[in-house]
Amino acid sequence: MHSALLRRLACSLLPVVTCALPAASPISAATQYGTVGYLEIDDIIDRFSDRYLARAIEQAQAGNIDTLLVRIDTDGGEVHHARSMFKRILDLEAEGIRTVAFIDFRAISAGALIAYAHEEVYISETASIGDIGVVFQTPEGQIEYAPEKFETVVRTLLAQAAEQRGWNRGMLLKMTAHKQSLYRVTLPGGPVEYVIEDDLPEFLTRHPDVDRDDPQQVIVYRGPDRLLTLTGLEAVRFGMASDNMADLDAMYERLGVSADEVVDLSPRGTERAAWALSRFAPALAGLAVLFLLFELKTPGVGLWAGLAALLGAGFLLAQYSLDLMENFELLLIVIGIGLVAAEMFTMAGGGLLAALGAAVGLTGLVLAFLPNELEFDFGDPIFVDALRDAALSGATSVGIVAAGVVLAARYLPRSLALHRRIAVREEVTATSAGGIEARTAVLQGQRGEAIEALHPSGMVRIGAESIRARAEHGAYIAPGASVEVVSVEFGEVMVRPAADTVAAGPGAGR
To answer: 487 Cβ partners below 8 Å, 6+ apart?
Structure first.
């Protein structure tokens, strides 16, 4: 479902030499944290993560939460959604909500970007944080660094985190600036600074007593083509984390609350279900439409309708929860299916109704995979990528419907057991497509009786034999009506009302 140009954040590990910078001093007043809400970001950073964070923040604001404790455990994800989540967290300071991140395993790539938007970052000793390299996948499947304009966006976000949260600017920028060196500068008197290459000229201007050519004062700490990643111990030593914490219980103690006092804002069951179903959304949509067509084609006990409803509900849950679908898209899909069904029942449009229905339904389906917040701007690469993904997802759904129809026409008539489950109310003695078609000359022109209503498919009795039939031109034939075999197609007989029945008409004999 993801396009070849989907930007993702890299996930690699680099060894880091430690140095003796003091750890951030702990904040002692437990009461300053107030009411604590807990949420977790523990999977790929994507639309689901973004929507979940937005929901949790809204709930925190409505519930007068004073502090958000965010457990982060992720290897990264999509730049677009990571940027959105970064801003959501950074903006909470203006709302008067304190933000505290806890990393018990890894906050790599987009996870590190989001972590440094928090006011405080706590990390276990064995965890890791960093490596915010912006990469994309080429059409050939190769992973390459994204163009400079995309990396610049991430560098700007990290610079903002350094300004507002007080993290070291040079180290943050080296987590993403793979082309630049990170310099370790020892100032006269002993203080150590870490300065990214772009900032070095200005830094030296402000510190004329530093000799750039003196290796005792200025050295390359991390060269180009290397991104910075820190272990939990290193992050604290460098001042890139507030303190080391072993687990959530230690975090609760640090915040001065017990576990049962914390407001749980973790993902709901429906949110996790929507996230899981979203991975299969094109298949769910395609199969739901396919099974609905089966139900319209084959009268019976409603098995296909039930399956269509179940899969359709899963599709709607995923798309509505992820803010991909609105009522307008659903209306287009329903209208499209309705037009196709009308064509199947009446054959009145000569195929035009079906074509129009397919076009309307496909439009709604593609829009149901397109993020609602994006404007139709073909100059925006994010929109173009999203539209490409949506078109691919819609095409996948349509492909499933088309393949299902072809396979059903080819193999469904051969399955006696399946026939009995979906349609047969009486014993069927002739179910083989090949067997019936071999008897075309015998069956054609014979008369029989509709065992059940044909709308347009059902069962008829020809002599002593029950045979699957379809009404010509999609007409409706009432049960008990006399029918005449017109032809044999796809393992079933094509029938029409017998000539004498038509001639009699509704008012005959009055």
So the answer is: 440, 444, 493, 494
